[in-house]
Write a structure and sequence with these properties.
The chain has about 500 residues and is of the alpha/beta class. It is about 35% helix and about 20% strand. It comes from Pholiota conissans.
Length: about 500
Amino acid sequence: MSIPTHNRPHLGRAVSDLPYDVLREIFLHCLPQYPLNVDVRQPNMQVAPMLLCHVCSSWRFVALSSPQLWARLSCRLTLFEDNDNEEIPRFLKTQIEFLQWWKQNQGAISPFLSIELESTYCNSIYLKTEECLIASDSMNFLLAWIASAQYLDIDPFLWEEFDRILHQDDTYPSMVHTLIRRMYWTDEGSPVPNVPYLKYSCISSLSKLRRLCITEAILPGSMLFHNATIPTQWTTLTHISLYKVDISHKFWFAILRATPNLQWAYLEIEYVVTDTPSDIAKYVHHHLNTLFIVFHYLHSPHIFPLCKFFSGLELPALRKLSISSDADSWNDDTSTLDLVAASQSAQGVETLFLGKGFLCAGDPVQMNLKALIHAPLWVYLPRLSHLQVQITPGITFRGPTANDQMDVFLRNFLTPDQHWVDLGSEGYTTPIRKLTFITDDAQLDSVVELAASRFQELAKRTPDIEFQLASELETQAASDAWKAWGAIA
């Protein structure tokens, strides 16, 4: 949604009726929640704030006095080959003019800056010389401005050149949010033709970086953060997101060792480079409080137990743990090791999300819950108060065995050991106060009623049990991720 010209008089009249603070909140509420949202039905974040400045002087005051508005602003720059001089890449004139306007009016607050190359230009970028990049007036302006940028989404083909020039001028970027896409991170050049790569040393200049997002990258097991050019203690980094990456256990430990103040981590793993964690010394990370782990392709032969990610690791500050995969089921033995290892490493977890695959369809009574039966969670997670379980399609909790199915499920969280023990009037000890069932089936709200009834009977108290659709969970998870990432002001 943009601001059409014919509506300007109405916007102007609103200024006289409402205080600036209210107008500011109204406008912010109309903007999209996610900075990279491409939904055409929502406002264009690059256009809407600019148009607001041109409605009238009062709305301009509202816009320019709202730092949280401009913190969301995204500017996407596209390099193209100049027809007059094909050896010099240039940015579009209008894009540079926008940055120049920005520098004059809101230079103290940086937009979310995205720099990319056109597809026809990517294949020839290696042929461009240093002089060609520097010769462009637009590039010179950008390099002078980028040192103060806070948000940066840069094409990896350009990153190394920017880093080299910044080092030449003895200037270091102060950006605190950086998104790096599609690369092979190495010091030996790209092993894949036409795939961009980034040298380890290029990240060392980001000494003030607080949030780092790496997407669609190959991260080999050579311990990025143990490289001599990387600060051994990256004390400023608090958030890291690895989206659709190949990763190794050693790399994960290297991240934790190099980021002692890391608080939030999101790992969406496409493939795990198998290595042996036994040669890694025990490590305690004192500040990580939120951890999301998503595994892809677990049904492939390269099944990698999650337990390796927790082997030798202690996370005393971890309060929220989310484990999920795109597989319909996990190996029972693997799941057992996963849950036990995770719970032993993070006994302070209060909220646990078990995604699709942990609760899988099988025998109508036993339901393949061997993993959970052999790992009573309340023993390992004494502070667990909220359990979220995504129900895999095929599990119905219906029919004549519904009560037995639910009992088998609940016993794994309520019983004091792995056997069915009758405690009489005392019921079953459990710290869990809230249980959330997540499913794609909108008709499964009967699960909530059944679970509440059996929970009350087994635990001798009334729990807080709710039902949530998987689609709603994904929306909420995306919102929580963006908020934690700091992209929403």
